[in-house]
Amino acid sequence: GALTDSLWCLSLHTNRTFQIDYERDQFLKDGKPFRYISGSIHYSRIPRFYWKDRLLKMKMAGLNAIQTYVPWNFHEPLPGVYRFSDDYDLEYFLQLAHEIGLLVILRPGPYICAEWDMGGLPAWLLTKKSIVLRSSDPDYLAETEKWLGVLLPKMKPYLYQNGGPIITVQVENEYGSYFTCDYNYLRFLQQLFHKHLGEEVVLFTTDGASEDYLKCGTLQGLYATVDFGTNHNITEAFQSQRKTEPKGPLVNSEFYTGWLDHWGEAHETVDTKAIISSLNDMLSQGANVNMYMFIGGTNFGFWNGANIPYAAQPTSYDYDAPLSEAGDLTEKYFALRELIGKFEKLPEGLIPPTTPKFAYGKVAMKKVNTLEESLDVLCPEGPINSTYPLTFIEVKQYFGFVLYRTTLPKNCSEPVPLSSPLNGVHDRAYVSVNGVPQGVLERNKVISINITGKAGDILDVLVENLGRINYGHDINDFKGLISNLTLGSVMLKDWSMFPLNLDAAVQNNLESHETWSNNPSSPSLPTFYVGQFSIPTGIPDLPQDTFIQFPNWNKGQVWINGFNLGRYWPARGPQVTLYVPRHILVTSSPNNITVLELEKSPCEDPRKCFVEMVDTPVLNVLPSSKKS
Ligand SMILES: *[C@@H]1O[C@H](CO)[C@@H](O)[C@H](O)[C@H]1NC(C)=O
Ligand SMILES: *[C@@H]1O[C@H](CO)[C@@H](O)[C@H](O)[C@H]1NC(C)=O
Ligand SMILES: *[C@@H]1O[C@H](CO)[C@@H](O)[C@H](O)[C@H]1NC(C)=O
Ligand SMILES: *[C@@H]1O[C@H](CO)[C@@H](O)[C@H](O)[C@H]1NC(C)=O
Ligand SMILES: *[C@@H]1O[C@H](CO)[C@@H](O)[C@H](O)[C@H]1NC(C)=O
Ligand SMILES: *[C@@H]1O[C@H](CO)[C@@H](O)[C@H](O)[C@H]1NC(C)=O
Questions:
Q1: Which of 17, 48, 73, 358 is the most exposed place for a label (fewest CB within 10 A)?
Q2: Is the pTM of this model over 0.90?
Q3: Does the domain formed by 28-342 have CATH 3.20.20.80?
Q4: What ligand 6 atom has the least distance to the C-alpha of 562?
């Protein structure tokens, strides 16, 4: 705003500097010793509506800085198409931090890891199939240069020395953990960052706290920092930083307050006492610490990443952080605040309270159409035909689902194995023949199922991208059918591929579409269900946040009023409820819930055909432990 602009103009005339003091092993802010106690918050995982609330809570915890990543794929969904408004308005986020009095440690990648799809790299980079990401591959460098040429000039006015909040800027992320070990790439980035941000900006790198990682992750001129959690010996961890940086401030760029989850594995937590003890030791040594995460937030839509051996992360990125996914104050928050208070003066004023949650209760759902019946809405352009299957990239569909369709080349009156001999179903496929469900293929887990049908029957293989690998060697993670399927000994050919635009279809009120069939169909086919609920009147301060759960449902995707909340998968766990921020709810008319259930809904029994809105999150139930 204008006020901010004028304040910044004034501050331009004061002498704002941020530097490394190699003699006394510290940072200097305006020439004076400075140490940051920071927390990670990813604006891409929190709706803009709540940015201020979360930042204020971080400020009130005694933090003097925040750290955020910038996910490239969040801002450049298609080559040359940029998004920087609304929930994508990074500059507004920086402005808010500045107004609240928080400094910013910016991590613009281009690779970020972050348990974010493909570590933040846009999937369309894979259009060149053989591209070597995070290296001096000329095609990769060209796109990187273009992107950073858009992003970094926007960041320049927000640098501390230019009157803004950004004190330091990270180059790449844990590059020493990646196989390319390409110093020319790091040098290229270093020059590019300086070109756009100026020579005086403090650039740094972050790597795991061991010489092995630091070896390929660091470069002269980029200040080397380390990351480690409570399970590390602090003295030894900082010694590894000292081997690369004999002088300068000690920095733990990612001190883990919690940990990430995967579908099918127990919810991760980190003990508050261990965190307090480690943080106390680090702060006592004068170290600079960023807590990763201070608030995790949510992988809305399709934004989660995955690890190897292939394991996708769930929708919640709660992370067991001091502020919960929904921004709630936790015991960990207050314990940290108390500890920080021993080192720094805590700000005066009230801590914004935990936002109230409301249990709107059960919402009856009704079947609309199967996904196959909705194809003309989901894929108005019609299919792309090809003898052999094409990947998501080849049909320019980057997230969600593609339906692969062919016909059975022979009679299968007895069960015949439908197989992916090369484990090329990325990542999950829901298979049906002439509208009869046959089973689910899954990467690394189920590479063959038996099917039955007659020659000429329609074989539908709905392939779901469960999230791209975000860490390690395999980030070139192609989706779809990335190798041929066989039926018995026959290779299947002559495919029609339907790239599905679910978000657009749901936003255009799929449920009011004229071809609403209500045909009887198996409850095990991928099917859309809709329901409505109204915000009760006569209760003050509604709407409030809530959590949606899916009792007796299996796996799918859910939207409220067209906002893609993410994946639900109680059949695998550990996440049971999905966070519903209140800003997507309306009071003036009923709210629409749209569910795409992929495996089996409970709707055969109309009394069980409901979803439920509750006031408490449940993130730690594995189905195997459900019954006990
Ligand atoms: C940490 O490592 C140092 C140096 O190897 C050692 O002296 C110290 O006892 C260790 N501390 C703990 C808590 O294990
Ligand atoms: C694609 O294949 C389907 C099924 O064989 C056929 O009906 C359709 O006409 C083909 N489309 C094009 C554009 O060739
Ligand atoms: C499939 O079986 C039907 C009888 O059920 C028969 O008429 C047809 O010729 C068979 N097709 C092939 C390709 O074997
Ligand atoms: C497929 O069917 C065959 C013959 O009925 C059976 O031996 C085999 O175990 C089945 N395979 C699977 C994956 O169900
Ligand atoms: C399928 O097999 C054909 C013939 O061997 C091959 O040309 C094609 O590349 C394969 N397709 C995929 C997606 O692996
Ligand atoms: C809910 O869906 C109906 C169509 O079924 C539409 O008219 C209405 O605007 C939608 N409400 C909201 C809040 O999006």
A1: 17
A2: yes
A3: yes
A4: 14
